[in-house]
Design brief:
single chain, alpha/beta, three-stranded mixed β-sheet, binds norvaline
Length: 371
């Protein structure tokens, strides 16, 4: 049955079918959390974020919200239903029997927390202590979907304990240097240990019957095994990108645009042996265009490669950040219609256009693209 805006239905099997219903994050009350192992490992040695923590400056929150609200309106103007989370008080510290942290993170970006696979939305375990309760920002929406859609499966992965045993102490020095980090990434030695299953939803890409999951700082092998057992009808593939010294979240590294076409970050190429499944099935993996910026904006965790963190609206249409002119140009050459969206001043809140959204409904069914 065709999608109707009058009726709530959760369903999304991939990253590219026509988008009908989406969640867009909010910047309200976002914090830079205090130091903690997995978060520190992601912050480059020369980042302006080192040694800082507390509520983000109010003018930056207002500006990010202005951009996120405009993006939501732009999507609504295209006929897409947009929901927004309900922020909790992120200044609250978190204490569990196993850890304590001085503040939370925010309700950005939703893609990190919520994984939609078919009729299910799964709350990820998360791997940062400051993000342990982040799912609460989305609970009002998930409660509503559950009440309105009889087929919706609301699932939550087991909450991890996040004791010190979850993190390799080797990563905790702020003077490791990029060469060492690259060596470790190539050896698949990451900040998180195999103490218990850990994954962030943004390490997973959905290709119908296949789920492609990045092994890195925020997702460990046990997390991937947990996903494999949780989705027994799917094939779950582990990938890693040795060129990335800070491997978290796959969506500024590997970006499927439509069946048969993926952008890959040229500094973080998928190793040959892991390309096999794509090549054998006629998929093309092309280098993404260079970012338009040499540095990320102030107080930003992410790299300049948010340029390729695009939101695909359908196999012919893609939202690209307005200042990312080279990425837009490449999309055009690849036959995609580009919708420009201004978002750079919200990057600091956790990412780009793909990050700041979470799918609720896309057309299409679960296809096998890699028979
Ligand atoms: N690994 C990423 C996170 C972006 C979503 C980066 O390039 O910073």
């Amino acid at each position: 049955m065709a999608w109707s805006p009058e009726k709530t239905e959760v369903k999304s099997w991939n990253e590219w079918d026509t988008l009908r219903h989406v969640i867009v994050g909010r910047a309200d009350d976002c914090h830079i959390p205090p130091e903690e192992p997995a978060l520190d490992a992601k912050v480059p040695e020369d980042s302006d974020m080192r040694g800082q923590w507390g509520r983000r400056p109010p003018e930056t929150i207002d500006r990010a919200n202005e951009l996120l609200n405009n993006f939501a309106d732009q999507l609504r103007g295209l006929g897409i239903r947009v929901d927004r989370p309900v922020p909790i008080d992120h200044s609250q510290p978190v204490t569990t029997p196993d850890f304590h942290t001085g503040s939370q993170f925010g309700c950005m970006p939703p893609r990190d927390v919520l994984l939609t696979v078919g009729h299910e939305m799964l709350e990820a375990t998360m791997s940062y202590r400051c993000r342990w309760f982040e799912y609460l920002n989305y609970r009002p929406l998930l409660k509503q979907y559950w009440e309105e859609d009889q087929n919706f499966r609301h699932e939550a992965a087991p909450k991890p304990r996040l004791t010190d045993a979850d993190y390799h102490p080797d990563y905790l020095s702020d003077k490791i240097g990029e060469a060492k980090r690259l060596e470790w990434a190539a050896e698949k030695f990451f900040v998180t240990t195999e103490e218990e299953p850990l994954f962030d939803a943004a390490d997973v890409l959905r290709f119908g019957k296949d789920l492609v999951v990045q092994h890195g700082f925020t997702t460990n092998l046990k997390g991937i095994e947990w996903l494999r057992r949780h989705f027994p009808e799917h094939r779950v593939h582990t990938v890693n990108f040795p060129g990335d010294p800070y491997p978290i979240h796959i969506d500024a590294t590997f970006t499927p645009l439509r069946p048969g076409l993926i952008l890959n970050n040229p500094q973080r190429r998928l190793p040959e042996e892991q390309r096999e499944m794509f090549i054998r099935n006629g998929w093309e993996i092309v280098d993404a265009a260079q970012p338009a910026h040499n540095t990320p904006p102030p107080l930003c965790y992410s790299s300049t490669w948010l340029s390729m963190n695009v939101l695909v609206l359908d196999p012919k249409t893609v939202c690209v950040e307005k200042s990312e002119v080279y990425q837009a140009e490449q999309m055009d050459k690849l036959g995609m219609e580009v919708i420009e969206v201004e978002l750079r001043d919200a990057y600091a809140f956790g990412g780009g256009l793909h990050c700041c959204t979470a799918d609720v409904f896309r057309d299409g069914d679960c296809e096998d693209y890699f028979p």
